[in-house]
Specification:
The complex is a heterodimer. The model of chain A has no long low-confidence stretch (mean pLDDT 86). Chain A starts with 9 loop residues before the first strand and ends in a 14-residue tail after the last helix. Chain A has a three-stranded mixed beta sheet with strand order 2-1-3. Chain A is mainly alpha-helical. Chain A is elongated. Chain A is built from eight helices and three strands; from the N terminus they run E-E-H-H-E-H-H-H-H-H-H. Chain A folds into two domains: 119 residues, Potassium Channel Kv1.1, Chain A (2-Layer Sandwich); 30 residues, no CATH class. Chain B is elongated. The chains are: A mainly alpha, B alpha/beta.
Chain lengths: 163, 360
């Protein structure tokens, strides 16, 4: 793709809050969504990404540039991903997972999902409901029944703390 | 986990709270990274999630150590069996992991593995720990599985899992064995030759049984790209014979191990020799073994060595200068004393200039 011509091609991406970003095509095509647009020839002007805000897109582009600079070395890529995600809070992770899903970036999606899972593992059901904005539509009786059904999974310590 | 559904989610209108619309599909993916106990807890989130855990293609059970081990291991077996029973109608399972830090019955381990293999498992990871002094036997269905891609077996007590003598795993790419004792009884090389597409082999804390007829562990893997030998426990007389012409990465960690590379390895790009055990009186033998191994790896582009390895190299300067002429200069050029690992680029191309075709 990008290798056809001698000079590296640059793409312009637009977030849903109208921020513009320049990114090397070779890095941007980590996103299958963007790669498809490039292959279909729709990448000539500005590529609008309607489901990603500027803050998240900036972060994703940092990731794209970082990971594509690493040669084929899975260990180094993994440690880059770990480091990249290490300082992100839960809200940012949730934005990232939505963006990765929309952009169809499987490796980022997996890394963020794993990180979210890691956070969730220690949290109570109430905490997860609040963070994901999930409405509890069980009746008290139903809820008690579900809890009884899987009693052993609720044994042990849970926290409601944010961190 | 193929997904082509991304397109639909694009249309979800996120409104004010961006978290409230985290699509169900994404939560399913997050679930697959949770251990099963935590995953089941999500059934309490809302009616929508009640059965979500059961459709997850990952099962991961962990039995941590505890002082009430007997009672706990019994209720653990009951709980796991209950969970497996509840999701028995889901025919696919990609990944199954059982991590036992307390002994359970061997029949329980066998049943778990059987359940997984019946569901076309891709990734199986077992840390086996039995309490009934009978090693768990791997079911035949597993040993001939065509779906299996990754297999991690850790024989935590050294008598908890029986190593099969032969396997037919046409699609196995990654094999990790930990705490296994090889002997003439359980090993004739077929465990590796039966995996023609094996790309990664990691042996951790393994050994050849002391005084056994078996003296050489043959690793014949024509497609092997990555080999790691960590904390090999065998005495000096034993050896690992490696026939892996396509090897790209090699790592040796722990104490020096006699490894004989039997073929040229033109693709070998990176190697890491991380000796960490003090050598003591065997310094001379250790140095000689190390030099002969480095000789066989002369194609390597990037070599990482630990300070302990450097000590072994420097222990006998005459031997070093004879075996690796030019190494001293290389060290000054490339190494810093304050970093834990020395990284030498084009190391052996420089130090073994007489070898042909080495270097980039």
């Amino acid at each position: 793709m990008a290798a056809e011509t001698g000079t590296p091609t640059t793409l312009t991406l637009k977030s849903n809050d109208d921020e513009l970003f320049s990114v090397a095509e070779s890095a941007a095509i980590l996103s299958v969504t963007i790669r498809n647009m490039v292959e279909d020839g729709c990448a000539g002007g500005v590529i609008p990404l309607d489901n990603v805000d500027g803050k998240t897109l900036a972060s994703v582009i940092t990731y794209m540039n970082g990971i594509s600079a690493i040669p084929a070395d899975e260990e180094k890529k993994k440690s880059y991903r770990d480091k990249f995600l290490s300082d992100k809070d839960f809200e940012t992770l949730a934005d990232m997972v939505l963006a990765a899903n929309y952009l169809n970036m499987s490796c980022l999606m997996d890394a963020v999902s794993a990180k979210i899972a890691q956070v969730m593992e220690k949290k109570s059901v109430g905490w997860v409901r609040r963070k994901f904005g999930i409405e509890n539509d069980y009746t008290p009786e139903e809820e008690a029944a579900v809890k009884e059904e899987h009693k052993w999974t609720f044994e042990g310590v849970e926290t409601d703390d944010d961190n | 986990m193929k997904r082509k559904r991304g397109e639909e989610q694009v249309k979800v209108n996120c409104g004010v709270d961006r978290l409230s619309c985290l699509p169900y599909d994404i939560l399913g993916r997050i679930l697959s990274f949770l251990d099963t106990k935590s995953a089941i807890r999500t059934s309490l989130l809302s009616t929508q999630y009640r059965h979500a855990w059961a459709s997850s293609t990952t099962l991961h059970f962990n039995l941590a150590s505890s002082k009430y081990s007997h009672a706990i291991s019994r209720s653990f077996e009951t709980n796991v069996s209950h969970v497996l029973q509840r999701r028995k109608d889901y025919k696919n399972l990609e990944s199954f992991r059982l991590s036992l830090h307390i002994g359970v019955t061997s029949i329980f381990i066998e049943e778990c593995i059987h359940y997984a293999v019946q569901r076309n498992i891709h990734h199986l990871r077992i840390r086996a720990n039995t309490k009934d002094h009978r090693p768990a036997t791997l079911p035949k269905l597993l040993l001939t599985s065509s779906s299996l891609i990754t297999l991690h077996l850790n024989d935590a007590r050294r008598d908890s899992i029986e190593l099969p003598t032969s396997v037919v795993l046409p699609n196995l790419k990654i094999l990790h064995l930990k705490n296994f004792e090889f002997s003439a009884k359980n090993y004739n090389g077929e465990v590796f030759t039966g995996c023609p597409n094996l790309e990664e082999l990691v042996l951790v804390k393994c050994l050849i049984r002391c005084g056994d007829e078996l003296k050489v562990l043959d690793v014949n893997c024509l497609n092997l790209k990555k080999l790691e030998i960590r904390y090999w426990r065998s005495p000096w007389e034993d050896m690992i014979g490696v026939n892996a012409p396509n090897l790209e990465f090699f790592k040796l960690q722990g104490s020096i191990t006699r490894i004989d590379f039997r073929t040229d390895m033109p693709c070998l790009y990176r190697a890491c020799i991380e000796l960490s055990v003090p050598v003591g009186e065997k310094m001379m033998t250790t140095s000689e073994t190390l030099f002969s191994m480095l000789h066989q790896m002369h194609h390597v582009n990037v070599l990482k060595i630990s300070p302990q390895t450097m000590k072994v190299i420097d222990a006998f300067p005459e031997l070093r200068d004879e075996k690796m002429p030019g190494f001293e200069i290389l060290k000054i050029v490339n190494c810093k004393e304050d970093i834990p690992m020395y990284e030498l680029k084009d190391a052996l191309a420089f130090t073994f200039p007489h070898k042909e075709g080495s270097g980039p």
